[in-house]
Design brief:
heterodimer, A: mainly alpha, Helix Hairpins, elongated, B: mainly alpha, Four Helix Bundle (Hemerythrin (Met), subunit A), quinone (chain A), transmembrane (chain A), EC 7.1.1.- (chain A), NAD (chain A)
Chain lengths: 100, 165
């Protein structure tokens, strides 16, 4: 396996680790941290592929992933604080009754 | 050479990430997340994408982790919370692990042998020409996404301050 293949395998591993965290953890904060790890996998894959093919589009896609992650964290943490105020619990099970 | 450094940093990020998702303390997980993000930034620098590395350090390891720290400060992280977290995690990790492995295997099977060669540099000037030239619509959509996120957070916090339950 060459360099870019190993890096893509590492990116897949990052994604899988994040997916495991999102599924296995019940605390919303831990799920958000796992989501960040999940997004870091594709970011690494994009930058590695961009470096491999000599295209700047890889870094541009990384910027898009970054903006997505920033918006996701802001909204996720706001919803988390709201949920904890309503349910008094940082548990994903508290979000069973999502109502406006 | 640079590929080797990038692989080393990426493996470090993967190890930190695997540790982060299995910690029972949120603070430990956050510190490990920070380590993974900084290691990824090192990988980006080794991949001749210094702009991506700098942005990763500034926004991911800087701003995003700082926002997380602000929220973690409001969470109680005593021994009881950690024991409860550990019990919850020990009760249900097998199925998520199987699902993650099932998602990982096809991704690894698709990897073929690609040609070697030094990483090609991705400069900030070429990136700016792309983002504000051919991809200008994408950049506009990103700004829209960020504004939508900002307004969403504002609305959520306003509801909290207002009298409505």
């Amino acid at each position: 396996m060459t360099g870019v293949s190993v890096l893509l395998a590492i990116a897949a591993g990052l994604f899988a680790a994040g997916l495991f965290g999102v599924l296995a953890r019940r605390t919303i904060l831990m799920q958000l941290i796992s989501l960040e790890i999940m997004l870091a996998g594709p970011a690494l894959a994009f930058v590695a592929a961009g470096a491999h093919h000599g295209m700047v589009e890889g870094t541009a896609m990384f910027l898009i992933v970054l903006a997505l992650a920033a918006a996701e964290v802001a909204l996720g943490l706001a919803i988390y604080l709201q949920l904890r105020r309503d349910a008094g619990d940082g548990d994903a099970d508290a979000a069973r009754r999502l109502r406006g | 050479m640079s590929w080797a450094i990038a692989i080393w940093a990426g493996a470090l990020a993967l190890a930190a990430a695997a540790l982060a998702v299995t910690r029972d303390s949120v603070v430990h997980a956050l510190l490990l997340l920070l380590g993974a993000l900084v290691a990824l930034a090192a990988a980006f620098f080794a991949l001749a994408a210094p702009f991506a590395g700098a942005i990763q350090l500034l926004i991911y390891a800087g701003a995003v982790v700082a926002v997380f720290v602000f929220v973690v400060m409001t969470v109680e992280a005593g021994a009881a919370a950690r024991a409860r977290e550990r019990a919850l995690f020990a009760g249900a990790w097998q199925l998520p692990a199987a699902v993650a492995a099932l998602a990982l295997v096809p991704m690894l099977l698709r990897l073929g042998g690609a040609g070697a060669g030094a990483p090609a540099p991705a400069g900030a000037a070429a990136l700016g020409r792309l983002m504000f030239g051919d991809w200008a619509v994408v950049t506009e959509l990103l700004s829209l996404l960020l504004i939508a996120g900002m307004i969403g957070v504002r609305v959520l916090r306003r509801r909290q301050k207002g009298g409505r339950p």
